Amino acid sequence: MAAYVSPVVEGKVLRHRGGETRVLRPGYVKPKHEFNYQQAVERLPGEDPAQLNDPAYRRLRIITDNLKQEEHAIVQVEEMQAVNAVLYGKYTMEGDQFDTVEVDFGRSEGNNIEQADGKNGLSRTVIRLIRRMILTSTAIRPAVL
């Protein structure tokens, strides 16, 4: 019989692996522009008055410009969320169509990145140290260092 095992004492289940699952309904980010046909009749900025384009071309150009602006706005929101997630381990979703939600990735405060002062910003040595610190304290294994 083992020295630390008793047949009359109930055993205790050991924790093998754990995790946490959270469900989040993402906020809806879709900027929209209104288009009316009066815009296609008027001359566009930069259009040569001597060689006016037809309204169908103007309509297509206006819609294309609107789509580019809308895509750019969505990318800006995603980049802001990514930067806040990297720097602080969380970000806040705010909008008119949903309640304000703080998305927290549960990262330790010790892993937050403090931005450097000065002209040169972070040196390569500091960036390597930050990467090493993140790799040793998390289970994330990026393919590129």
TrEMBL record:
InterPro entries, per the entry: Major_capsid_GpE
Pfam family, one: Phage_cap_E
Highest taxon, organism lineage: Bacteria
Gene3D superfamilies: putative capsid protein of prophage domain like
Identification of the protein by name: Phage major head protein
Organism encoding this protein: Escherichia coli
